[in-house]
Amino acid sequence: MSELHPFQGEVLAELIRNGVVESVHAGHLVALASDGSVSLSKGDISLPIFPRSTVKSIQASAMVRAGLRLPPKLLALAASSHSGSQAHLDAVLEILASAGLTENDLLNATDKPLGESERLAWGSAAPTRLAMNCSGKHAAMLATCVINGWDIKSYLEMDHPLQLAILREIESLANQSVTNKTFDGCGAPLFAISTIGLAQAVRSITISSDPIHQEVLSACRQFPEMVAGEGRLTTRMMQGVPGLFMKDGAEGVNIASMPDGRTLVFKIADGSLRSFGVIIQAVLKQWGITTPHEAVDVYGGAAVVGGIRAVI
């Protein structure tokens, strides 16, 4: 029998059907207390992971530091994985227009909207760069390049001044050097750090006295519907928990923090997202925080015969 893969980590959630564990979601999780100490740890939080879209607030901070100026609603979109509603698409175009650019200048991957209802409404229309959930970030990247006189045709290259600025911002907040450099699904550079490094970065940006960090997080908290979209977990949680900052990422990565520095980061080893709500709810309950109801029911026909529970 082969040994378990070291990246599997520990079980973070179980799917229960009629009292029997049918499936499990394993991974790596760390919660930091307000003083930065580790209050909860599961799996190997020192292993490198790709944080995916959970670092968009840090990317946005690097852009603001480089001169980007956007009103809060558009700044929240710059740190988003938006659903692709018309409001989101119009806001992306507004960011581009502020820099004298158009949709044609975007170089991110093409896709249909990320939100379920938005994708359904999109129908059989072809995927576009504008509809792709990272287009707000890319529009902000382009606007930052225009402000600084940087080349907009190569803004996704690893050694572009913009991407070097983002790398510095990530390493500074994480107090850790990145261990791997590659490219995200949208085409932008992606940097690997550990789960604990990501938690340190999220806590750092949350409690930072730097007005740039506070501007970005304040924008996200003020406009959670721009960070994700109506009906999505990130938006629901930030709307339901005053002061909460949260961001999800592809392949099962999630971050959350409170203004006092309490921070949660986890990576689901199989890359799935379905246990996110119950895991977040369980940790915030330990923090004494009431969250929106995030139960995941398991059905046998029309009857509920089980659900997903956190193993924290």
Summarize the structure.
The protein is 36% helix and 21% strand. It has helices at residues 56-65, 72-78, 86-98, 116-122, 135-148, 161-174, 195-207, 211-222, 224-227, 233-240, 276-286, and strands at 10-17, 20-32, 38-42, 48-49, 180-183, 189-194, 245-249, 253-257, 263-268, 297-300, 303-310.
Span from first to last CA?
28 Å
Arithmetic mean pLDDT: 97
Largest sheet: 8 strands, antiparallel
Give the ordered list of helices and strands. Answer: EEEEHHHHHHEEHHHHEEEHEE
- Helix tally equals 11
SS-derived structural category: alpha+beta
Query: How much of the polypeptide forms β-strand, as a percent range?
Result: 15-25%
Description:
InterPro entries: Asparaginase_II (IPR010349). This protein has eleven helices and eleven strands. The protein has 312 residues and is α+β, with helices and mostly antiparallel strands. The chain has a single domain (6-310), classed as Beta-lactamase. The longest helix is centred in the middle third of the chain and has 14 residues, at 135-148. It is globular. It starts with 9 loop residues before the first strand and ends with a strand.
Topology of this structure?
Blueprint: E1 10-17, E2 20-32, E3 38-42, E4 48-49, H1 56-65, H2 72-78, H3 86-98, H4 116-122, H5 135-148, H6 161-174, E5 180-183, E6 189-194, H7 195-207, H8 211-222, H9 224-227, H10 233-240, E7 245-249, E8 253-257, E9 263-268, H11 276-286, E10 297-300, E11 303-310
Antiparallel strand pairs: 1-2, 1-11, 2-3, 2-9, 4-6, 5-6, 7-8, 8-9, 10-11
Helix pairs in contact: 1-5, 1-6, 1-8, 2-3, 2-5, 2-8, 3-5, 6-7
